[in-house]
Design goal:
Layout: H1 8-12, E1 18-20, H2 27-34, E2 39-44, H3 46-51, H4 54-67, E3 73-77, H5 87-98
Parallel strand pairs: 1-2, 2-3
Length: 100
């Protein structure tokens, strides 16, 4: 996947409800370019989800959830998650997304 930052203004013009961003796009910049009404999904580097510990994945995910909780945001990987990704790391992302 390539950095799609240069396409953000074009994405805005798609009238999409959700834009799933790759891990190379800065979320704050994306929000600035896309506006407040589009749900932004992403953008954790899938290599980190695969290779980091369960706790590290939880902390990374929770940080994003906390940071963007007042916005239209969907926690997700910033590209495809590989079959080598440990199940417990995916569950850590899930737990991080549902804590209040």
């Amino acid at each position: 996947m390539r950095d799609t930052t240069h396409l953000l203004e074009s994405f805005r013009d798609l009238n999409a409800d959700i834009i799933d961003l790759d891990w190379q796009v800065d979320l704050d910049y994306a929000r600035e370019k896309l506006g407040d009404e589009i749900v932004i999904g992403g953008n954790i580097n899938p290599v980190l989800i695969q290779d980091r510990s369960e706790k590290e994945v939880f902390d990374l995910s929770r940080n994003l959830v906390d940071r963007y909780k007042e916005q239209k945001y969907l926690l997700a990987a910033g590209c495809e998650i590989t079959v080598l990704t440990p199940h417990q790391n995916l569950m850590a992302m899930r737990r991080a997304s549902i804590l209040t």
